[in-house]
Automatic annotation (TrEMBL):
Family, per entry: Belongs to the thiamine-phosphate synthase family.
Gene responsible for this protein: thiE
Binding positions for 4-amino-2-methyl-5-(diphosphooxymethyl)pyrimidine per the UniProt entry: 36-40, 70, 109, 138
Organism: Desulfobulbus oligotrophicus
Name recorded for this polypeptide: Thiamine-phosphate synthase
Function: Condenses 4-methyl-5-(beta-hydroxyethyl)thiazole monophosphate (THZ-P) and 2-methyl-4-amino-5-hydroxymethyl pyrimidine pyrophosphate (HMP-PP) to form thiamine monophosphate (TMP).
């Protein structure tokens, strides 16, 4: 079973001049459990080469951490990635599933309860709730859903929920307590002076929040 608790989304524009592979290596050392390679403005050949390098790295340092490719189903298939993550304007989930098969992870970004229900019905393996809070790493998002949005989607679907958008070590606890199974972060790790330390701090908050949830329901 995939651990979506601490999900890294890469972004070269925020990396402070460091390579994506170095960011990923440090973040996994700090506790990242899933890596999404997101490249919006590079050539396809570069994207494929970078994805292969990161897949090789993850296989070497922690095979349990899957590589998810953002948007580009062709890149995911070319490198044998573990999964693909699709937005509301990307290829339809049912079409993507036919191409990638049943063993490949498929995540879908949702912006409403209706989106989440549709994603579950169309075969998603997990749902990305976006955005939870205001964020500067994407400029094509709707109004933030907030903690109430997480709660509403949690009540509507049974799939793992990964919350993204403006999440930091300061608000991770409330996001997990609201019903998210994990958090996806970009700048909180990629833009940190120490991606390893940043990942470790986030992981600490996730573990503590899960313990709180278990204790409150016991």
């Amino acid at each position: 079973m995939v651990d979506f608790s601490l999900y890294l989304v890469t972004d070269r524009t925020l990396s402070l001049g460091r390579s994506t592979i170095d960011i990923v290596r440090a973040a996994v050392a700090g506790g990242v459990t899933c890596v999404q390679l997101r490249e919006k403005k590079c050539a396809t050949r570069f994207f494929i080469e970078e994805a292969r390098l990161i897949k090789e790295l993850l296989t070497k340092i922690n095979p349990a951490v899957p590589l998810i490719i953002n948007d580009r189903l062709d890149v995911a298939l070319a490198v044998g990635a573990d999964g693909v993550h699709l937005g509301q304007t990307d290829m339809a989930a049912v079409d993507a599933r036919r191409l990638i098969g049943s063993s490949c992870i498929m995540g879908i970004s949702v912006e409403s309860v209706a989106d989440a229900i549709r994603a579950e019905n169309e075969g998603a393996d997990y749902i990305g709730i976006s955005p939870v809070f205001a964020t500067t790493t994407k400029d094509d998002t709707v109004e933030p859903l907030g903690l109430q949005g997480i709660q509403a989607i949690r009540a509507a679907v049974s799939l793992p929920l990964v919350a993204i958008g403006g999440i930091t070590a300061d608000n991770t606890a409330e996001v997990i307590r609201a019903g998210a199974d994990g958090i996806a972060v970009v700048s909180a790790i990629v833009g940190s002076p120490s991606p390893e330390d940043a990942a470790r701090a986030l992981k600490t908050q996730i573990i503590a929040s899960r313990q709180h949830n278990r204790a409150s329901t016991a």
